[in-house]
């Protein structure tokens, strides 16, 4: 959410109020609410027994439950091996560094909206000395022709599936296979940023191993869609993962004990992974109902992107200041016990006054019908009108 000079304590109070309203709501459409720590620990102990022997000793530097998670991940993706990393940022830095060493080319082709370019504070260049080139700046994955015609050599093509900052967008299966083939024509290796790869199978109509087989290495996250505590895995050939393990040690990723994260990830793979397809199936009708409900209630220009979501996540755009929309969302949750957007805030990523929020259709959303969403959207629109009417001359930015 844009703050326009608001003091940090005011920003924190707004965040706490939004979180409290979402937690107290009887119904929440978007996102997964994280329970308190006591409940989280109790659930982990209860659910962990179904995925691992809790009488076993805790892991030490990657043994036990951590190694079990690595083997399970490799099996699910159809790769020879996998390595657990505390963060996806570290996993991908290591993967791209390994491939640069093997290809002898320190240039990575990727989208300018890809995670290393937007969310890692320049780590790829600062820590590895690699440089990046962009086959396209369009808000989508690069095409085969764009990869084939890129006017300088690159050693690795990195594809983020889905491309989150463009709206969780995916290519078609034919487009993806053609783009990978174009990289192979240029003797480049292919790495998938698959932080959210788990939920891509409905769109592609292919199982995880067939998708992962297109790439030389794949990174997956255990907390973004699976509800884990933290952590990621890098999957690929046995020799590549062995080399990645050496770099993981150098990067400080060999933690003494990580069994809570490993157990939570194993639980997520057992319980949440099978549900993701149902979330994707619901996302289309609920996204349409959200857009229709807002438009019918008189809000200007509500847009869902993609219009038909490619996964269970999508963007909602509205031409109002983020502060107005956040206040309306909190009031709706506080007064009715119904929260459309959960803990997520609106932001203004481009023009001031044009706001966007990411919507995630997960377990709580399965209780909603399209009619429920349209009704709640109408109530939200009335709160937006109410907040706008309270704004002093100059608008919501001055009010802050």
Automatic annotation (TrEMBL):
In the UniProt record, does the keyword Lyase occur?
Answer: yes
- Which residue numbers delimit the Aromatic amino acid beta-eliminating lyase/threonine aldolase domain? 51-291
One MF term from GO for this chain?
lyase activity
Q: Does the keyword Transferase apply?
A: no
What the entry lists under InterPro entries is as follows: ArAA_b-elim_lyase/Thr_aldolase (IPR001597), PyrdxlP-dep_Trfase (IPR015424), PyrdxlP-dep_Trfase_major (IPR015421), PyrdxlP-dep_Trfase_small (IPR015422)
Task: Output the SUPFAM superfamilies linked to this UniProt entry.
Answer: PLP-dependent transferases
**UniProt keyword terms in alphabetical order:** Lyase, Pyridoxal phosphate
**What is the required cofactor set for this protein?**
pyridoxal 5'-phosphate
What top-level branch of life does the organism fall under?
Bacteria
Similarity section: Belongs to the threonine aldolase family.
Q: What is this protein called?
A: Beta-eliminating lyase-related protein
Q: Which organism is it from?
A: Actinacidiphila polyblastidii
**Lineage in the entry?**
Bacteria, Bacillati, Actinomycetota, Actinomycetes, Kitasatosporales
């Amino acid at each position: 959410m844009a703050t326009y000079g608001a003091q940090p304590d005011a920003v924190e109070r707004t965040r706490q109020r939004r979180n409290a309203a979402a937690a107290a709501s009887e119904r929440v459409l978007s996102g997964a609410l994280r329970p308190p720590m006591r409940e989280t620990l109790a659930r982990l102990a209860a659910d962990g027994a179904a995925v691992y022997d809790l009488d076993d000793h805790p892991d030490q530097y990657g043994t036990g439950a951590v190694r079990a998670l690595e083997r399970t991940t490799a099996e699910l993706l159809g790769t020879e091996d996998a390595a657990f990393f505390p963060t996806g940022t570290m996993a991908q830095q290591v993967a791209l560094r390994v491939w640069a060493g093997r290809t002898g080319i320190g240039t990575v082709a990727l989208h300018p909206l890809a995670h290393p370019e937007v969310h890692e504070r320049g780590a790829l260049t600062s820590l590895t000395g690699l440089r990046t080139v962009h086959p396209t700046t369009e808000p989508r994955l690069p095409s085969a022709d764009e990869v084939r015609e890129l006017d300088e050599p690159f050693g690795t093509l990195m594809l983020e599936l889905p491309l989150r900052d463009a709206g969780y967008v995916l290519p078609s299966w034919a487009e993806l296979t053609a783009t990978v083939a174009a990289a192979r024509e240029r003797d480049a290796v292919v790495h998938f940023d698959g932080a959210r790869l788990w939920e891509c199978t409905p769109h592609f109509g292919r199982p995880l191993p067939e998708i992962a087989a297109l790439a030389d290495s794949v990174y997956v996250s255990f907390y973004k869609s699976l509800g884990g505590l933290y952590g990621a895995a890098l999957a690929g050939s046995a020799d590549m993962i062995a080399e990645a393990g050496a770099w993981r040690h150098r990067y400080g990723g060999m933690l003494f004990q990580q069994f809570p994260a490993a157990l939570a990830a194993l639980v997520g793979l057992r319980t949440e992974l099978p549900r993701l397809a149902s979330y994707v199936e619901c996302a289309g009708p609920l996204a349409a109902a959200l857009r229709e409900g807002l438009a019918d209630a008189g809000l200007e220009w509500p847009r869902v992107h993609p219009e038909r979501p490619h996964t269970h996540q999508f963007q909602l755009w509205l031409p109002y200041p983020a502060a107005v929309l956040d206040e309306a969302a909190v009031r709706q949750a506080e007064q009715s016990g119904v929260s459309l957007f959960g803990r997520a805030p609106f932001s203004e990523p481009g023009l001031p006054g044009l706001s966007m929020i990411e919507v995630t259709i997960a377990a709580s959303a399965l209780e909603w019908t399209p009619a429920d969403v349209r009704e709640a959207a109408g109530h939200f629109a009335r709160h937006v009108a109410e907040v706008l009417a309270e704004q002093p001359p100059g608008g919501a930015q001055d009010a802050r």
